[in-house]
Design goal:
Helix content: 40-55%
Number of helices: 4
Strand content: 5-15%
Number of domains: 1
Order of helices and strands: HHEEEEHH
């Protein structure tokens, strides 16, 4: 079956300059790798908790394996069903149901959000986790600075 994808990117201010300062030194990069891992794990946990249906159980977390990691990502694996207009991008449709030309409104069927619309479910998780992710990266930057000073 074809696979669909939904990409949400979050820019962390200062991350690019932090990576440049590390100059491929993995000793200093370890706090960054740990921070990216913690941030991705937290996002994945929130996604599993609030995702509609079984989407949350279909997530995979990956952290860049380079000496100085550039990213951490969460992949939602799901089968994209075919429709007349192409693949039915399930997570995207649930997140953007208000924008659909068909006028379809998707909602949670069971669980703590039962009956609530799924509109922006993924966007809301991103907004809710942004502060935690930013703090985690800032703590890594502070830890790296302390290592430079010793």
């Amino acid at each position: 079956m074809p696979r669909g994808s939904l990409k949400i990117t979050a820019e962390v201010e200062g991350l690019r300059s932090l990576r440049k300062k590390l100059r491929d030194d993995p000793v200093y990069a370890e706090p960054l790798r740990e921070a990216l891992s913690r941030a991705a794990a937290y996002f994945k946990e929130q996604l599993r908790r609030d995702a509609p249906g079984s989407i949350g159980q279909r997530t995979i977390m990956t952290v860049d394996m380079r000496p100085i990691p550039k990213f951490a990502k969460i992949v939602i694996r799901y089968a994209a069903k075919r429709s007349k207009t192409g693949p039915f991008r399930y997570p995207w449709v649930l997140d953007n149901s208000e924008k659909l030309k068909s006028g379809a409104r998707y909602h949670y069927r069971v669980g703590p959000h039962s009956g609530a619309l799924t509109y922006h479910w993924l966007t809301k998780i991103r907004e809710r986790t942004a502060d935690y992710i930013t703090r985690t990266i800032q703590q890594a930057a502070a830890q790296i600075e302390r290592r430079w000073q010793t």
